[in-house]
Amino acid sequence: MPVVAVIHEAPRPTWSSRRLLEAARARGHRARYVLVQYLSGTVAGGCAVTYRGSCLELDGAIVRAIGRFPSLETLLKRVGVLAHMVDEGVPAVNHPLSLLAARDKYTSLRLLASSGVPVPRTLVTEDPYEALHAIERWGRAVIKPIAGTMGLGSFMVDDVDEAYRVLELIATLRQPIYVQEYVEKKGNRDIRAFVVGDRVVAAAYRVAPSGAWKTNVARGARTEPAPVTPELEELAVRAARSVGLCYAGVDVAETVDGRYVVFEVNAAPLWRGLYEATGVDPAPFIVELLEDMIKGRRDYRDCGLRG
Ligand SMILES: Nc1ncnc2c1ncn2[C@@H]1O[C@H](COP(=O)(O)OP(=O)(O)O)[C@@H](O)[C@H]1O
Ligand SMILES: [Mg+2]
Questions:
Q1: Sequence-ordered strand ranges (E) for the chain
Q2: Is 59 close to ligand 1, i.e. is its CB under 6 Å away?
Q3: How many Å lie between the centroid of ligand 1 and the Cα of residue 86?
Q4: Does ligand 1 lie within 6 Å of residue 150's CB atom?
Q5: pLDDT tens-digit profile of 80-133?
Q6: Are 194 and 181 within 8 A, CB to CB?
Q7: Cα→Cα distances 80→36, 42, 48, 72, 93, Å
Q8: Which atom of ligand 1 is nearest to the CA of 153?
Q9: Cβ atoms 273, 221 nearer than 8 A
């Protein structure tokens, strides 16, 4: 019986992790919940990857989280040990290097843009004055943490004095500044398109609470089913592939003048809100995709990973 792991940092499986464990069991796998912090790597001796001191015996893995606030060193260790595992022949989705790229809003946005995916104008800098000039040019902008998630820590600014205070603070903390033009979203909502492999298995509108501009479910947005048009599917799959993701949650907004714009791709999206809106649980699709990887019917190049 194949052994499949769901890898995370949280001591207890989240709702989405539980869906994956159940889906794997329903498809005849032995499913294990593995904590990333207890994985160790050995170079030039014995078993390459161990879990709590014993050799890790796995056929495949679904990596759900590599840590919420790890230090750079911890992040390198975790990505390294997962990459080691993949090199030893255990496929993991998403690939640890793509997880790392997706976590970095700058690198992932650049990869999206170079694949022809429309993204907002964005500046990454350590110079608060450069950022201030960009905000003056754009009129209204969003300042985001370069590795943020769930809408936490982003500010919308349209006042130069206010912007200056925020930028000064970021510079004092010696953090890079990621600043983006503000995009007026049609209906104050965006679309979360859930990509698994070559298709969008479900899509949901995320409507921001009134007076708010963020559409994260974690920030109180409401979800509604959204139609998966061929145009949306093509765009979302292209977005996921540009970052080398085998499955992804793609944040797509429709602008008031009728264009699509992609804010980001999420490498380990949660899907409770999407499930409640659409009735579609992506978990069995993700497990099926992993099975294809284990059986060699699909490889990372099919997910757009280069090299
Ligand atoms: N440039 C922007 N213009 C308008 N709204 C934005 C912009 N960037 C992000 N948002 C809104 O904020 C939400 C969170 O931003 P996002 O880049 O997806 O970061 P996070 O990782 O925190 O989800 C988006 O889903 C979108 O609703
Ligand atoms: Mg997002």
A1: 3-8, 30-35, 39-41, 49-51, 54-55, 60-63, 92-93, 122-125, 141-144, 155-157, 177-181, 189-196, 199-207, 222-225, 247-254, 260-266
A2: no
A3: 32
A4: yes
A5: 999 999 999 999 999 999 999 999 999 999 999 999 999 999 999 999 999 999
A6: no
A7: 11, 11, 12, 12, 15
A8: 22
A9: yes
Ligand 1 centroid to residue 198 C-alpha, Å: 24
The verdict on domain 102-117+185-281+294-303 having CATH code 3.60.21.10 is: no
Q: What CATH architecture does domain 3-95 belong to?
A: 3-Layer(aba) Sandwich (3.40)
Which atom, in ligand 1's list, is nearest to the CA of 105? 17
pLDDT at 46: 87
Ligand 1 neighbourhood includes 151 CB (under 6 angstroms): yes
Establish whether residue 103 lines the binding site of ligand 1, counting it when its CB lies within 6 angstroms of any ligand atom: no
* pLDDT attached to residue 67: 87
